[in-house]
Amino acid sequence: MLEWLFGRARTSVPPETRTAGEGEALPGSEPDQDGILENAVALASGVDITDAHYPGRDPIDYYGNGGFRFSNMSHRGALLVIPSGIHRWDVDDWTRLDPESFSKIFAEKDDIEILLIGTGNDPLPLDPSIADALRKAEISFDIMTTGAAVRTLNILLSEDRAVAAALLPVA
């Protein structure tokens, strides 16, 4: 389930374990705004938030604790950052990825210059069937840890490049 949260993360990252982009509070965020009330109101009013996506291409402000923060919102789980916006990515296990897992990327391939694939805490190889499907679709890709992918994504977004990212969360 997609979880959009506002304000600060529920758990903080100790300063000694932070890396670039991890654990900082967002400017102007309030400690008591965690999005639970907003999510409850949305669900009670019949709003389907399972397919929600953020239509912007904003940088990732935070990664860690199993999720990401961007544009004063938070998401637990994997993300796709593509030209149409930031989408939840229904992936929970790297070993179960298949070409269908990248269907949204294939659908927007004409607007993607490079795809960054963040594999979580450890660099992992991409299944050959996925790599072949990306090459056949003429999508350039680079595989790296999620931290490196987030930092690279933010730089390329600041340069207004046609970048996409498939990001697994880190603990």
Tell me about this structure.
By secondary structure, the chain is of the alpha+beta class. It has four helices and ten strands. It has helices at residues 36-44, 103-107, 128-136, 146-158; strands spanning 5-6, 53-54, 62-64, 67-70, 73-76, 78-82, 85-89, 114-118, 141-144, 163-167. The strands form two sheets. A six-stranded mixed beta sheet has the order 2-7-6-10-8-9, with helices on one face. Strands 1-5-4-3 form a four-stranded antiparallel beta sheet. The longest helix is centred in the C-terminal third of the chain and has 13 residues, at 146-158. It is globular and about 35 Å long.
Q: Strands of the largest sheet, in order across it?
A: 2-7-6-10-8-9
Q: Give the number of DSSP strands.
A: 10
Low-confidence stretches: 1-43
**Mean of all residue-level pLDDT scores:** 79
Query: How would a textbook summarize the main sheet?
Result: 6 strands, mixed
User: CA-to-CA gap between the ends?
Assistant: 18 Å
